[in-house]
Amino acid sequence: MRAIDVMVRDVVTVRPDTDVAEATKLLAEHDVSALPVLDQDGNLIGMLSEADLIHRAEIGTEKHRPWWLEAVTGATRLAEEFAKSHGKKVGEVMTTGVISVTEETPLSDIATLFERKRIKRVPVVKDGKLVGIVSRANLIQALASVAGRIDQNDETDRQIRLELLSRLKNQTWTGFGERNITVGNRVVHLWGLVGSEAERKALLALAENVPGVSRVADEMISSY
Description:
Helices cover 38% and strands 20% of the residues.
């Protein structure tokens, strides 16, 4: 399986001139741990993660070193830490030099990146433009969807997922996200919380009607 098979395409993003306060609200409202930062042309130029916002002056968590340790800490490092704790714009706080992958990057390579770089998610780019994001949770869902699987039919699975996402996008009765959908061996796996039992049934029906689907595995939980 490759990045294109599990990545989330509907990604919440920010600009470098976005207020840090606004970006923080987006992290909380969308329950994500990082936001890609795009320039005015849509190019990926950085990532704003929870780690970038841990040490903030507003909540009294900025770093305070003993004078002797500060004296031997490089000026560049001290300046970076000050910007992280006091910066008001995303561009002042974000992490640059972002590691990214392409749609065709194998999941095995992505897993290695997560381990070596100690990151939780990686943006997927095409010609410098952001097209999706893959998180650790997406890899776990992919693992669950292929557990016990013998034949490999990635292309069919990929087409099923793309068709399902296309149909889902046209539905106004649900906000079910693509990060909760994986396909393995022609079996569609639907995960996560849905708004009602009626929405759960409708999502099952939607998935069952996609050509090529052999079965739909219902892992959803209805909110009552």
